[in-house]
Amino acid sequence: MSHLIYLMGPSGSGKDSLLNAARDSLQARGCYIARRVITRSAEAAGEDAVSVDAQEFARLKEQGAFALSWQANGLAYGIPRVIDDWLGGGHDVVVNGSRAHLPAARARYSQLQAVLLEVDEAVLRQRLLSRGRESAKEIDARLERSARLRSDAGMEGVWRLDNSDSLEMSVAHFLQWFDGLPVRHPGS
Ligand SMILES: Nc1ncnc2c1ncn2[C@@H]1O[C@H](COP(=O)(O)OP(=O)(O)O)[C@@H](O)[C@H]1O
Ligand SMILES: O=P(O)(O)OC[C@H]1O[C@H](OP(=O)(O)OP(=O)(O)O)[C@H](O)[C@@H]1O
């Protein structure tokens, strides 16, 4: 069975950066990266996410368009159902997930491999500030959420990847870990 790689980490820890930097190497390994649907403005959503308003998100969810969905930071996030086709076709898939939603994701995907991207609190604040996407108030709320979810509870079996150093180093560690995942057995 192919792997569903569920990448988590506080907002600002570098999930999007890591995925973008590893994109070509993952693609070369036959691994797909899911494009999230987010109720964030098109400008702030970036190229690797689809921006919708809350009404459209609710409609898509109602139609069963999402394999996984959650709410956090005042936003709704959805992972398109197409990931089930990719997994069924033997591809590994990476999703940019939520720590709070991990139990639900694990319940749905027995083949889930969880990764937690970590940076210390001071670095996180600095990165959120330099990214400049959120207001000071939104950044404070993200740091509060990060501190609240920083416990080890429910994180058993999660591989931790430190992203305090260079992104290149994190990508190299991530790919090394990916290459060491158990062999995929078609149809198992
Ligand atoms: N290893 C790194 N070193 C320095 N800056 C980084 C590193 N990883 C990410 N960043 C920067 O930190 C900010 C947050 O990264 P981002 O990928 O948007 O995080 P996330 O998707 O987890 O919210 C961005 O401005 C990004 O350029
Ligand atoms: O339960 P948590 O682990 O806190 O995660 C909740 C959400 O927060 C993050 O999104 P955010 O809006 O910050 O977008 P980003 O990942 O692009 O920073 C993360 O990607 C999750 O979708």
Q: What structural category arises from helix and sheet content?
A: alpha/beta
Low-pLDDT regions: none
CATH architecture: 3-Layer(aba) Sandwich
Strand content: 15-25%
- Associated small molecules: adenosine-5'-diphosphate, 1-O-pyrophosphono-5-O-phosphono-alpha-D-ribofuranose
Can you describe this structure?
With 188 residues, the chain is of the alpha/beta class. The protein has a single domain (4-179), classed as Rossmann fold (3-Layer(aba) Sandwich). Helices cover 41% and strands 22% of the residues. It is built from eight helices and nine strands. The strands form two sheets. The chain has a five-stranded parallel beta sheet with strand order 2-7-1-8-9, sandwiched between helices. It has a four-stranded mixed beta sheet with strand order 4-3-6-5. Residues 8, 10-11, 15-16, 72-73, 75, 77, 96, 98-100, 145, 149 line the site of 1-O-pyrophosphono-5-O-phosphono-alpha-D-ribofuranose. The site of 1-O-pyrophosphono-5-O-phosphono-alpha-D-ribofuranose has 15 residues, from helix 1 and strand 6.
